[in-house]
Amino acid sequence: AQTPYVRSLAQGGIHSLLSVPLRYGDRIFGGLNFGSLRPQTYTPSHLALAQKIADHVSEAIATAGDAPASREMNEALEHYLSLLLATFNSTAEGILAVDQAGKITTFNQKLLSLWKIPEPAAAAMDRESFREFLMEQAREGEDSPAWDRLFSSPPESSAAGTLELKDGRIIDCHSQPQKIGHDIVGRVFCFRDITGLKRAEEALRKSEEEARRLAAENAAMAEIGRIIGSTLKIEEVYERFAEEVKKVLPFDKISVNRPDPKTRTVTVAYEMGLPVPGRNAGDVFPLEGSLTGAGIRSGHGQILTLEDADQFSSSLPGILPIFRKAIRSILMVPLQAEGRAIAVLFIMSTRPDAYDQNDLRLGQRVGSQIAGAIANAQLFRERQEAQEALRKSEEEARELARQNAILAEIGRVVGSTLSPEDVLEKFGAQAEKLIPFDRMVISRVLPGGDRITNQYVKGDPAPGRGQGDCFPLAGTFAEEVIRGRRGKILEVEDEREILAQYPPLGPEIQAGLKCALGVPLFSGDEVIGTIQFRSRKARAYRPTDLDLAQNIANQISGAIKNAQLYQELQQTLEALKESELRNRGLVEAAGISGLGIVIFSGEKRDDVVCLFANEEAQRITGYSEEELRKIPFSRIIHAPHRQAASDRYWKLVGGLQERILYELALRHKDGHKVRIEISAINTVFKGEKTMIGFFRDISDRRRAEEAIRRSEALLRSVMDALPVGVTIADREGKILSANPARREIMGRGDLERVEQAALLKARCPLSGKELTPDEWPLCRAARRGETTINRILQWEDPGGG
Asked: Looking at the DSSP assignment, which residues form a beta bridge with residue 512?
């Protein structure tokens, strides 16, 4: 509780009290008190100084004893007053005292140094002139009435104020009545330079504001990081990202623009806020002349203030759309990933000078966060696209392998017999596996070139267009394919229009034709017919089907030509039935080959010449029959094969073999190599030992077989490179193939049937149940045609693998 003395001091305006005892020995006989109008004036150093003063005063009074009027007492008091004066002048405050009339009664040295007043000038002043002197030093705009109250307050009241000077200092002032006992005898003014304190307070305030701002920024950045890390789908990130950015960087519009250097365009990947025509999400605009392009070129963040259109209309016309929408401030941050700009972040405001360098720094922090997300999203998309491309590549490789296998089978069928009927029937069954159809027609151009015949028909019937029917070529779909020498797809959308173009299609359109595909049949450079596929389904065929159909046609064209050659052979046999060629050997050889026919004779190795060559033999070799008669036949055999061919000829003519069948290479008249398959027998022609040979050009077939081998090798390399295990089994459960990844994952490569997978003792990780052989995914797929996706299994190899 306060004592009456302390309460009286407080009532008099004293806010700080320093009190020390007066001691002599162990006896306290009084006290020394100091008072201040300012709160918290005294420090521990003041306390120590006051105690020293009190000790001197105590000693002087004790020495004087009971004679207060003695000389020693006077000296002690003088010493005491001197100490008080020293204390008065050493205080950190400037002190001024005036009497009731306003006359200055005393002041300390601190007042003179604080206000830079010469002591004589200060002594000559009164309260009013001192106030005017202070106001002359005050910064313009200071509150003069407040200072008037400081100097003109009622005698019994206290007053306080702060004055900012022209030189930048801030002076704090307190005034209170000066009392002796209960009587007011004047007024005391205390002045203190608080410039450092105010600056410290301002710095602290700014520091606290900066700390709060940084805390808000860091919280926003942390949330942005959390949002970005929550998903690889950038579309799900943008919206929440923009909401967090707006908490620390207010905007009227935000956008992320992605440049495409290849197309020289910019795509708005994301935008939020003020709609701008041509600058909304998904919009594409030229890179040249755009602010995005400028940001990419500069490579660093910028703050732009848009004052008028003239400042950028010529250099950056791409800014005009946003300028017209009242955007006046732009914060632009290029988004970098792996040393290159992948996008540009724009934060825009309709307020001029809305952003400063702190905002730019924050924008760059935000940009570095979202840049990583955009780069990761792009990598994620590229990986998905690569996986999808790999999947398609694998599917295409498998489909190509399947097609090549069927084409190989077609080639085998074509080369297996001379009978056109047998060849075409087997061919139709294989062709249907490659190109679905409701009707397939193989047409052959008849001699004269103005009529065609349906050599083979499979599928839906059509009146007047059955197998064996002949009709004019003019006006048919086949005519356009033959004349154009390339495949064509026909869509029957408007029946009247199609019938006007191809009148002979009437019966097939009536039978339900909606789509047709036709390709030419070539023999050498000559078009000998067409193969056409018909479907009742609209848009049944695609351009890729044209290429496949042409490959099929290249295979079967040999069989069609063989039919002509077979007829030619029959005619030749009929013409030669009076000669030695009418024997079983010719018929058997014709049954084996039936293509080019030649007769050789000669008694010496270099004298073997051709006595007869049909038209096909002349076409294959490039020589006329007359030319073949004049040159040794060994000259048209490819050099590496000459010796083997010669050996076989002499064995045959010498009777060591009755017939031969082998392959060799001829050298065409124009120099290129032709691979043939030849069958030959020995006979007598015009009294001479001769060899009759039947051969055909198998170059196309060999190229097809090589393509099949390359496709199979490609498929095998793809399977071997796959990081996932692949096992191929037939429907009987026999394992046909497995890639290295499967053998490594399963720990063994000796499985021959799908049931043997039970040796691995697979279990379901969740239930722990062991799978039976029938429950293995491969067994279910092979036996029941069931598909299993993303099933997780764990197993152990009983053999310790």
From this structure: none
pLDDT in tens, 359-378: 898 888 888 877 777 777 67
CB 625 within 8 A of CB 612: yes
- Cβ(502)–Cβ(476) below 8 Å: yes
pLDDT digits (tens, 9 = 90+) for 382-438: 677 777 877 887 777 787 777 777 777 777 766 665 466 677 778 788 888 888 899
Q: Which of 87-101, 252-266, 710-724, 779-793 has the highest mean pLDDT?
A: 252-266
Range of the domain at 462: 415-566
Boundary of a domain, candidates 382, 405, 430: 382
Are 117 and 236 members of one domain?
A: no
Bridge partners of 302, per DSSP, are 332
494-553: pLDDT as tens digits: 888 989 999 988 888 888 889 999 999 988 788 989 999 999 999 999 988 998 888 888
Kindly state whether residue 395 falls inside one of the protein's structural domains.
Answer: no
- Residue 297's contacts (CB-CB under 8 Å, 6 or more residues apart) are none
Q: Are residues 117 and 59 in the same domain?
A: no
**Domain identity same for 460 and 477:** yes
Distance CA 596, CA 598 (A): 7
Confidence (pTM): 0.36
The structural domain count of the chain equals 6
Is residue 225 included in any domain, yes or no? yes
Which residues, at least 6 apart from 752, have a Cβ–Cβ distance to it below 8 Å?
A: 734, 735
Could you tell me the strand order of the sheet in which 94-99 lies? 104-107, 94-99, 183-193, 170-180, 159-164
In eight-state DSSP terms, residue 636 is G
The arrangement of strands across the sheet holding 515-523 comes to 470-472, 451-459, 439-445, 526-535, 515-523, 488-491
Tokens read off for 387: 């996986």
Cβ proximity of 775 and 763 under 8 Å: no
Burial class (CB in 10 A: 0-12, 13-18, 19+), 544: exposed
**Residue 679 Cα to chain centre, angstroms:** 62
For residue 294, the domain's CATH number is 3.30.450.40
Is residue 765 situated within a structural domain?
yes
Asked whether the predicted pLDDT for residue 659 surpasses 60, the reply is yes
